[in-house]
Amino acid sequence: MIKKKKPVILFKYGGNAMTDDELKEQVLEHMCSLTKKGYHVVIVHGGGPFIKDILGKVGVESEFIDGHRKTTPEALKYVEMALKGEVNGSLVNLVNRIGYKAVGLSGKDGKMAVATKRLHRKMVDGKWTSFDLGQVGDVEHINPQLPEYLLNDGYIPVVTCIASDEDGNDYNINADMFAGHLAGALNAEQYIVLTDVDGLRMDKDKPETLIDKLHVAEIPSLVEDGVIQGGMLPKMDACRIALADGAGSARIINGTQPEQISDLIGKNPVGTTIIK
Ligand SMILES: Nc1ncnc2c1ncn2[C@@H]1O[C@H](COP(=O)(O)OP(=O)(O)O)[C@@H](O)[C@H]1O
Ligand SMILES: CC(=O)N[C@@H](CCC(=O)OP(=O)(O)O)C(=O)O
Questions:
Q1: Which domains does the chain have, with CATH numbers?
Q2: How many CB atoms lie within 10 A of CB 38?
Q3: I need a surface site. Which of 2, 127, 139, 176 has the fewest CB within 10 A?
Q4: Closest-lying ligand to the alpha carbon of 231?
Q5: Mutual angle of helices 232-245 and 175-185, in 10-degree steps
Q6: Closest CA to 164 of 108, 122, 209
Q7: Is 232 in the pocket of ligand 1 (CB under 6 A)?
């Protein structure tokens, strides 16, 4: 008998929403409990504040360009330590402690993600201008077999956003971008981005201006008008990629409010939904 494939929910857990261990545990409990409701759960995480901390301690400076951290080879060493050692280690520990089986991975494991150096361009004074972001990568290709094996065997993949290119050079990839590619490759029924705000706002400082639904075609003009900026730039790009590559839906919700996760499969969708 052919086993029916379970739908995948892929969560992108942003570092800004990981304020303390108690909250992290509640959020992870809400995510992982979806496995009892017939879903396969994948967690992709970032860890911006943890990277900032470690870089500060060792005195390595870094700057963000359009939501991507310019990364020198020296900084990359510390980015990897923070993401794989600190954040991934702690999330795997918490998932295991609350009674599920987590497997911590980065894009390098099993060559799940193959990266390429990011060629960053944007309009400056009416001209396309290139920016060298150093060891910042883009996902070129995803091999979904490893997370699929794990999901089919009852494990929860907890994945972070470091990957190598075909020659073995390592790259720091924005976690939203990484997650969007993986959600597409896994044909996730839902791609859910957990951050520290309720979703995309028309005015980033006014919670009452939350946009509940947005078409991907509306993204470029919202970028041009400066509505989508900073950390929201890669988030929206990642939603576009996830939907184009095979995810069923994409949504941004508040990861500091765990109950919003339960609402996902309920009747009252929260956050900002991005539609094709
Ligand atoms: N239009 C907008 N609506 C809401 N937040 C916005 C908007 N534009 C930029 N942001 C910023 O994006 C941030 C979330 O992105 P980021 O800091 O990268 O978080 P994460 O760690 O979850 O990836 C918000 O805290 C907010 O400051
Ligand atoms: C290239 C790039 O920007 N990489 C990110 C990776 C971590 C991340 O994206 O973390 P959040 O999800 O918490 O933002 C960085 O260095 O901060």
A1: 8-275 (3.40.1160.10)
A2: 10
A3: 2
A4: 1
A5: 10
A6: 108
A7: yes
Q: Which atom of ligand 1 is nearest to the CA of 193?
A: 22
Return the best residue to mutate from 51, 171, 177, 196 for the ligand 2 pocket (most ligand atoms within 8 A of CB).
51
- Tell me what pLDDT residue 170 has: 98
**Residue 158 structure tokens:** 């907890």
CA 12 to chain centre: 4
What is the SS3 assignment for 141? strand
Q: What is the mean pLDDT of the chain?
A: 95
Please write the tens of the pLDDT for every residue from 52-93.
999 999 999 999 999 999 999 999 999 999 999 999 999 999
Look up the pTM and report it: 0.96
Q: In the chain, count of helices (H) and strands (E)?
A: 9, 16
Distance CA 237, CA 241 (A): 6
126 annotated among ligand-binding-site residues: no
Is residue 143 helix, strand or coil? coil
The preferred substitution site among 81, 119, 138, 174 for testing ligand 2, maximizing ligand atoms within 8 Å of CB, is: 174
How high is the pLDDT of residue 265? 67
* Predicted pLDDT at 1: 58
37 vs 113: CA distance, rounded Å: 28
Give the model's pLDDT for residue 139.
98
Separation of CA 198 from chain center: 16
Closest atom of ligand 2 to CA, residue 161: 6
Q: In the prediction, which pLDDT does 142 show?
A: 98
The torsion of the CA quartet 238, 243, 248, 251, rounded to 10 degrees, works out to: 40
